[in-house]
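Support reply, case 0932

Customer input (verbatim):
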Amino acid sequence: MSIQKDSVVTFHYTLKDDDGEVIDTSDGGAPLAYIHGHGNLVAGLERELTGKVTGDKLAVKIAPADGYGEYDAAMVQRVPRRQLKGIAKIYVGLKLHAQTQEGPREVTVTQVVGDTVTIDANHPLAGKNLNFAIDITEVREATAEELEHGHVHGAHGHHH
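Our regenerated output:
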């Protein structure tokens, strides 16, 4: 069976940046399982997996536009520390949840200088190529219940 809309796909992956540094991997753990065609992966990776079959191994480079988007400098703000009430320790790398016009969004503190805190609402991988090594371990049809719930059940999926 080839990967198509409503297929359950299980695969191992390693994600690297353009310098070859590993960003994330399933190596040594359980493979990732998802329902294809439902926006569960970045668009570029889902497109590259379409038509592949169990046992296929592939290396793909996903451009920012088909991954986590281009880096947007407008999503970086400097705010007075007093606006971050109730947070005792503010440091570079701290993840916060901010309410935006588009709804809740995770932001990262990228700089703290005196009483000014710089926060970045871009995804950490925005503006970066995504270099995937993929090993497809299983392709099957999704069950009606999986499609209804919107996630994979069983061995590498959600357990009820």
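We compared this against your earlier run and they match. Two observations from our side: The two ends are 27 Å apart (CA to CA). The first strand starts at residue 7 and ends at 16. Please reopen the case if you see a mismatch on your end.
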